[in-house]
Specification:
This protein is α/β, with parallel strands linked by helices. 37% of the residues lie in helices and 16% in strands. The protein contains 13 helices and 15 strands. The strands form 3 sheets. The chain has a 7-stranded mixed beta sheet, with helices on both faces. Strands 1-2-3-13 form a 4-stranded mixed beta sheet. A 4-stranded antiparallel beta sheet has the order 11-12-15-14, with helices on one face.
Length: 442
């Protein structure tokens, strides 16, 4: 890696050059585009991001689970540079090219299940989820879509409707799309009768609501994140996902796994639903698929995917050739560097450290996650009352010390950690030390 893998803080964060650029941003970009940390990046790679002022920060965000293989993985760079020199676009629906087909073949091979599959490519995670719903409705002839508390699926009109959280995603953007229904998620930390009852009771409640309020025979799709992302990295209680998948199979409902944030080795398996052996009918992927280039995919059972009429699926930029080459580079890197195992190693380092902090600091109510998708939920000590104020204080201290961290959660009280899978372990340990100090100073 050509970028030194070290934390270096040489100015206040943000520094003067970043502050100048921030002023330009504020004059040119609407305020609705928020900024977690207003440093302006000039280079990034491995486990660090460098800014315009020469600061080098430890990256615990990966561009929200996008740069799993790093920000400039050599195989991605090499393939992208060659493709840009050959051609940047033809539109696959007009004159196709091999790399699109190769990406689809790889996803058909790698996603869970040994059934015959089809894949097509789009540009964003929201677009992927929206197309999964379109396909499920077409294949079943049914209108209803079932989603879950704390779910996040995107910012288009339909996917915003599927998303649970009002602020900032839905506030004043209605009216929303019809025939979307929400049921409970098995959230162990906050389940009223305790985590030991969570899976069974949540599944019973969800299925009862579907049967009574919608009618299973009217449901086209159940859409769920195997680990809820923006909702707070909630790992559903064991048994919940298989139970919902079984219910779907018994009732002719398309079970859609939204793996936009959890996919491509992030959770210590290639896809998060593999943890409990769940085989979705359709799986949507994006974020980590192409190392930062805009690409997303819908992969599903051939008998479902093949029902849509010619011309019913597509998009001008979907499966852009440069992004397809990047995706092939990502998949090569994951395999050759065994990033699935590296994600598990990150979890093996982070989770014990964070659980030890939980023993020391009552503000940490819950530690959860798998692989390199880890979170802590902060509460008012001695209660489960969400503590978003503490989260913001920790974030501010971490950023000032040169550690980039992200927040999440329906209640704004979750710190989420998404380090690149290629981060050196010394940076991982150093980042955890900064986090520990920030929590101790609350």
């Amino acid at each position: 890696m050509s970028i030194p893998q070290e934390r270096r803080v040489v100015t206040a964060i943000p520094g003067p050059k970043s502050q100048e650029l921030l002023a330009r941003k504020q004059a040119a970009v609407p305020p609705g585009i928020g900024t977690t940390l207003p440093i302006f990046v000039t280079r990034a790679g491995g486990g660090v991001v460098q800014d315009a002022d020469g600061n080098s920060l430890i990256d615990f965000g990966s561009g929200i689970a996008v740069t799993n293989v790093g920000n400039a993985a050599p195989k991605v760079v090499e393939r992208v540079q060659k493709q840009v020199a050959d051609f940047t676009h033809t539109c696959f629906m007009v004159t196709p090219y091999e790399s699109y087909v190769q990406v689809c073949e790889k996803l058909n091979e790698l996603t869970p299940g040994d059934h015959e599959k089809r894949t097509f490519l789009v540009s964003s995670g929201a677009e992927a989820v929206e197309n999964a719903v379109k396909i499920a409705r077409h294949a079943t002839g049914r209108p209803a879509v079932v989603v879950f508390d704390h779910g996040y699926h995107g910012r288009t009109l339909l996917t915003m409707t599927l998303t649970a959280k009002n602020m900032p995603y839905k506030h004043k953007f209605g009216p929303f799309a019809p025939e979307v229904y929400r049921v409970p998620l098995a959230y162990p930390f906050r389940w009223p009768s305790g985590p030991e009852n969570c899976a069974e009771e949540a599944a019973e409640q969800a299925i009862d609501m579907i049967n009574k309020q919608i009618g299973a025979e009217n449901v086209a799709a159940v859409v769920i994140e195997p680990i809820a992302g923006e909702g707070g990295f909630i790992e559903p209680a064991k048994g919940f996902l298989p139970r919902m998948a079984e219910f779907c199979k018994a009732n002719g409902i398309v079970f859609v796994a939204d793996e936009v944030q959890t996919g491509f080795a992030r959770t210590g398996t290639l896809f998060a639903c593999e943890d409990e052996g769940v085989v979705p009918d359709i799986i949507t992927t994006a974020k980590g698929i192409a190392g930062g280039l805009p690409l997303a995919a819908i992969t599903g059972r051939a008998e479902i995917m093949d029902q849509v009429h010619v011309g019913g699926l597509g998009g001008t930029y979907g499966g852009n050739p440069v992004a397809c080459e990047a995706a092939l580079g990502v998949l090569e890197t994951i395999e050759e560097e065994d990033l699935v195992a590296k994600a598990r190693r990150i979890g093996d380092i982070m989770l014990p450290r964070l659980r030890a902090l939980q023993e020391r600091f009552a503000v940490i109510g819950d530690v959860r996650g798998r692989g390199a998708m880890i979170a802590i939920e902060l509460v008012e000590p001695g209660t489960k009352e969400p503590n978003p104020t503490a989260v913001q204080a920790v974030v501010k201290r971490c950023h000032a010390e040169g550690l980039l961290v992200l927040t999440a959660g329906t209640y704004g009280n979750v710190l989420r950690f998404l380090p690149p899978l290629v981060i050196p372990e010394h940076l991982l340990e150093e980042g955890l030390g900064i986090l520990e100090k920030a929590i101790a100073e609350l």
